[in-house]
Design a protein that fits this description.
By secondary structure, the chain is mainly α. It has twelve helices and no strands. The longest helix has 23 residues, at 21-43.
Amino acid sequence: MEMKSIIMMPGLIARLKSGDEQAFKELLQLLGPKVLNYCKKKVHNDQDAEELLHDIFLKLWHFREKIDTSADVQILLFTMARNHILNFIRKKSLEFTDLPAETVALIAEEPPIIQRIDLAALQVQYQQIMQRLGEKQRKVFKLSREDGFSHKEIAEMMGISTRTVEAHIHSSLKVMRSEFKDAYILLVLFLLR
């Protein structure tokens, strides 16, 4: 089963939502390696990345009933991964401070701002803007921002120069800034690299 098919499989998401463990295992097989790779790139530690992956999928299982079957589960998982990574980094950085334990606990439990905003509306607007980009531009942007590939890797995959990759990303970001206007900072948090 290829990656695009998971996005188009509301049946799998519906099965997950109803508590089907096999659907959960299929989702873990399909997207687990990508999420793990993303975590490894961000925390630079295989063991921490694997713990994050388990936490992310455990949270997905616990909140499965709240999943919108029409939502892109890949975006959901990477948003969850980003939030878990941010919390992980914040907790790690607090371990090296001289703050009292109570203060560290309060700061560590404070949800990041990105969790308090309406991500669903942001995702819809993001998807609409992505559809308006040219096919190559959209593909380059997704490979860079959603899949975490480097400019060099994208250039090799698509048979184009790294300068062309950079130009596509630059023009995509320009469109995003223009379209999102005041909400651009939320988009930056949404696409945090």
